[in-house]
Structure formats: structure tokens, C-alpha cells
Amino acid sequence: MVVSGLVIQLLSYPIGKFMAKVLPTTEYSFLGRTLTLNPGPFNVKEHVLITIMANCGAGTAYAVDIIVIQRVFYKQDFGFLANLLLILTTQLVGYGMAGILRRYLVYPAAMIWPSNLATVALFNTLHRREELAPGQWTRQKFFAAFAIGSFVYYWIPAYIFPAITALTLLCYIQPSNVVLSQMTGSQGLGLGVLSLDWNTITAFLGSPLITPWWAQVNIMLGFILIAWIMVPAAYYLDIWSAKMYPILTSKLFTTDGYYYDTLSILTPAKTLDEPMYKAYGPLRIATFFAISYGIGFAGLTAILTHTFLYHRKQIWAQWKEARGASQDIHYILMQAYKEVPEWWYLTLFCITVTLSIVTCEVWNYGLPWWCVLLAVGISALFSLPIGLIQAVTNQQPGLNILTEFIIGYILPGRPIANVTFKTYGYISMSHAMSFLGDLKLGQYMKIPPRIMFMTQLIGTFIAGFVNLITANWLLSTRPNICTPEGGHFTCLSANVFYSASVIWGVIAPERMFGSTSIYHPLMYFFIAGLLIPIPFYLISRQFPGTVLDQIHIPILLTSTGMMPPARPFQYANWLVVGFCFQYCVKRYYKDWYQRFNYVLSAALDSGVAVSALVIFFTLQIHEIDFPAWWGTNLNHCPLDKANFYGQVPSNKPKPAILQNNGNP
């Protein structure tokens, strides 16, 4: 359960209004300054700062997954201080980088950060009053109606009728047919699956009412090519003995189709035990998982080529000029305030990198100091090109595969070192993007930069403590948490995180993708990614103004990077909604689109977020389930989890060498 910044944005408005009415206006003197609990009416800038502070803590800190897999899967616990430093440093390194990249990713007008458009629309809806003719809907009335409707409706898919989150319409025809189940099941390729749950549709790609249509077309092309062409072709041609395993899962398998017992191949120090590994055999992964890795390889190198080809002149121009070219009108208006000097961000960056090294060296994360510097260097290298993508498309390619791959070669057989390196290398960039988006929001809403700096810093510290305290409480009080027996607490992201730690950390890329591995051909995707953007660039320059100008290879390749744990039906339904609003409504009902589109997005998100919070704290946390009936069964297509032969994987009996050794 995650309390998003949107919930805080929504709930803080009536609370702020109430406090402005009831708090005393008495003034106090302190250190020569006059202070008061109630300086006046609750205004939009106060509201923005509250929301930005909440955004710093929205979602679960990525480093929490390290803590979870250590305690649940690897049976380690480094203690509160080590965990706190890990969470704070992985977030604050990104903050330092964000400040340095402002001139490229915040100040220019072209860097719009689409996710902020719905946020700004909600602020304007709440704080501006409209005078319209009788019978016309104001934005406030529109927002209230759809937010309440979204709140009420979400009880149906979240509690009363969960089956409508994924109606496997085609699979109902013959659920005993394995191929039909794999192609049309919600846990398979999702053909024809209908979702009537806004939260399910937006869970991974965000609101389809915000992402520009040209970006959605690129996502659609990449999704169809990978999920509905490449994956089924490889699977049913039995490449990599694919038919032995389910078509889509993040689980790990033995060569004969059983689940892989990773604890059996670890030493007490949580490194690879070679004799045990040889006895248990090599690791195998599902076809979709394997192809996702290959496409991820290509996407990362394509980012570098694309950035050089399309953005080199822009980057160079802004490097030469202190504030860059084509500045946003919002930025020009912000000159009335004192800017945050870059040395503030540089100082914060240096301090947090130093603390990161101390954390990894003092506690046994297995990551030497130079590896920490390498991880931060990778994050810094990719932050600008990825920022250029996210600032205009609302999509963020990840660095998780690249960082796992590099450290897997440098320090093979060390899963905790691997995920720690990944977190510093990937999530530092991701947090930098989050901070940059908030800086752009502050620019839109004219928030003084120095107040923004302190707000983000304080919000990050508070979020770090809250994340850790919450994680410790859940890990200590919920039995079987993050396991199939854990009820509502199955921790999908932590399970994917754990699987990746085994693939890249325990087994290591040399065994997984080296010259003797069946997955070695995926390594050539690195080269393919470097080359693919070049012909599209040359053709678009030769024939400007054609549809090829809209082809964005990094988005096309990296769009499916969240599958698994995301499912194809979520992408398909997201694209359908996006087509309806970003193409049809925008084209044929332009006035309505300009007036209500972003308000509708904010209303639907707000209703779902508040409803999910109420359901969780009133029912789910107490394990009060709705009475069982057909609609509470999430999957009426059980064979979508089976292999080609209709067998659902199970645990493998341990070889004699493992039993005799006494390993778990």
C-alpha cells in the first residue's frame, strides 16, 4: 500500500483551509524574527510545497527491497542505522545530480514534464474560481463529481469484484486449452483481456491521459513487436527449450522445469557455492523474461546513440550558455527569486557519495569503495539522456539491467553487492528524475528555489525514516510476508528484485549470458541498440516532416521493460484508453480536452488513491475479505501459468549432495 503525493495534494487542501480558519493569528518574536502559526489564508504556494514534500516520500524507497530480500530470502539483517543510511544515501545522491542538470532539464521551455500537467490542473481547479453561464460545469464541479465516482467505483475491483481487473474473455471459451490460455490469459500475453480497473491500467505506465499520443504510438509499436510477435514466435518455436516453462513469469527454473531453489546453492556467507551449483544445474528463465533482458540491452545503448544524434547541438548550446537557450517564460519570471547556487548541490552530492562509501565499507554489503563510485558514475552518465526522454514523453527507461550486468561481471557470486550496486547506479538516476520533475513543478507554480531546496531535502529525510520504520514493522509482524502464503502481502516487486539478484548476483552474467550459455545471443542486442537509431535519423533528415520524425527508438525498445511484473493486458488497455483521449478526444473535442482532460486524470487518480487507502486501513490490514464468490477469483484462466504441456511448475526435490550437506 503506497500513499501517493496525489493523496496528500488532495487531502491537504481542506486541512489547510480548516487550519487557516481555526489557528490563532498571534505573533511571536524569535531570534529577531516575527513568527505566527497563521500567517493568512491557505494559498496555492503553500499547497504546492506540501505536495512536493509528499512527492519526496511517495512510493516505497527502492533500497527497501534490499532490506526485504536480505531478511526474507537471504536471512540477513544489518540493523537500523545501516538500513537508514542506505535508504537516505541512495535518494540524496540523485538530488545532488538533479541540481546540476537543471539548466538542461528544467529551465528550457521544451522540457515540459507531462506528469506535472495534471498536478498543475488540480492546483488550478482547487484554488481558482470560475464564473460560467448557468448549466456549464466548472472544473471544480467536474473534478468533484469524477473523484467521488472514482472513489466509490474502486470498491468494486479492489474488494467486491476483483475479477473485473482482468476479464479473460477469450480464455473463457476453452480454459482447458493451454495455448489459448497462454495467449489470452491475464498471466500470459493478455490478448483480448479487458480491465475495468483504472488502478490496474495505470499501475506501471502512469495515466494514459497525460502521455503524448506520439509517445504512446512508440510504446504501442514496441509492445506489439515484443509481446505479441517476438515472444510467441520464440516460445512456440521452442527456442531455449521455452516450452518447458510458462511463457511469462519472473520466477527462476531448473532445466527440467522446476522452480529453482536458490538458497540451496548459497554458502553461509551468501555467495555462490560452486559444488552445489553444479549439482543443481544451470538456471533458466521464461521466454518473455529473457527477451525483455535482450530488448533492455538494446534500449540502453540506443539511448546513447539517440541522444548524440538528436540532442547534441541542444546540449552543447546550453553548456556554452550559463542558462541555456529557449528558456521557459516560467523560468524568466522566476528570476525575481534568488537561485540555489550549484555549489549547494555539489556539496550535497559529495557528502552523500562519501556516506555511501562509508555505509558499504563499514557494513558488509560486499561493495568496495570504487564500485560505489562506478555506480554513481553510471547514474550520472545516463541522467541527462534519460531526462531528455522523460521530460517530453513521461516515460523513464531504467538502468537496472545495465548496472546488474556490469557488477555481475566485476563481482560474480555476490547477490547483496549486486543489488546494492544496482540501487546506487539505477535509483540515483531515477530519484534525480523525480527531483527534476518537482523542480519543474516549482517553476510552473513560481515557488522560490531556495525554499524548494529545503522542502525537498526535509521531505527526503522524513520519507527515509518512514520507509524504514514501516518496512521493519511489516517484516516483524506479518507472517510469511513476501511469500505465496503471505495473503495480501506478496511483494511482487521484491520477488522480481530477488530473482534479479540471483540471475545477476549469484549465477552472474558470465554463466547466464557468457559464450557457453544458451542466452548468449542476447548479448548482441547491445550492438543492435547502438545501430538501430542511425537509419531512422538519416531518413528523417532526408525526408523531414514525415511520420518517421515521430519514431523514438529508445521509447520503442524500453517501453516493455516493466514486464514482468507488469502484464501485457495492462499495456493493451492503457493504449486503448490513450487512443480514446489523446487521439480521438483531443482531435474531435479539442475544447473539452483542453478544459477537462488533465482534470479528469487527476480526479480518477485521486478517487482511486483515497479509496485504496480507506480499503487498506479499514479492511485489508485486518484481513477482512469480501465473501468468496466467482468474482473474487482473480484468475479464471489457470493454465496461463502453465508450461506448453499444461504443467504448473513446482519445487524440485533436492539432489543428494544438497541433502547430505545440510543446506536449506
TrEMBL record:
Q: Which UniProt keywords apply?
A: Membrane, Peptide transport, Protein transport, Transmembrane, Transmembrane helix, Transport
Q: Name one GO molecular function term.
A: oligopeptide transmembrane transporter activity
Q: Name one GO biological process term.
A: protein transport
Q: List all membrane-crossing ranges.
A: 48-68, 80-98, 104-123, 143-169, 189-210, 217-237, 285-310, 343-366, 372-392, 399-417, 453-475, 487-507, 519-539, 596-619
GO cellular component annotations, sorted alphabetically? membrane
Q: How does it sit in the membrane?
A: Multi-pass membrane protein
* InterPro entries assigned to the protein according to its UniProt record, in alphabetical order: Oligpept_transpt, OPT
Q: What is its main location?
A: membrane
**Localisation:** Membrane
Q: Which family does it belong to?
A: Belongs to the oligopeptide OPT transporter family.
Q: Which NCBIfam families match?
A: ISP4_OPT, OPT_sfam
Q: What is this protein called?
A: Oligopeptide transporter
Q: Which organism is it from?
A: Linnemannia schmuckeri
Q: What is the lineage of its organism?
A: Eukaryota, Fungi, Fungi incertae sedis, Mucoromycota, Mortierellomycotina
